[in-house]
Write a structure and sequence with these properties.
The protein is α/β, with parallel strands linked by helices. It is built from two helices and three strands; from the N terminus they run βαβαβ. β1, α1 and β2 form a beta-alpha-beta unit.
C-alpha cells in the first residue's frame, strides 16, 4: 500500500513563516520513509488540508497519514 505523509501546520499570511514546514517536508522526503510527503495548512495559507490530501491521492497514495506540525500549543492544538 502506497502511503503518503501530509504534514499540517497552522499557516501564516507571511510566506517566510510557512517556509519552515516546506523545509521539514524536504527533509522527510530525503529520509524516504514515505514515498509521498506533502505540506498543508490549517488556515491563512495554501494548500489547505483537503487540497493537500487530494494532492497525495493524485500522486498515487492509497493511504494518507496526517501529522500535525505545531510548534506551540495554541488554540487549535488544544
Amino acid at each position: 500500500m502506497k502511503k503518503a505523509l501530509l504534514l499540517v501546520a497552522h499557516g501564516s499570511r507571511q510566506e517566510e513563516a510557512n517556509a519552515d514546514l516546506y523545509h521539514v517536508v524536504a527533509e522527510m522526503k530525503q529520509l524516504g520513509q514515505f514515498p509521498i510527503v506533502e505540506a498543508a495548512f490549517l488556515e491563512f495559507a495554501e494548500p489547505n488540508i483537503e487540497e493537500g490530501g487530494r494532492r497525495c491521492v493524485a500522486l498515487g497514495a492509497e493511504q494518507v497519514v496526517l501529522m500535525p506540525y505545531f510548534l506551540s500549543s495554541g488554540v487549535h492544538f488544544r
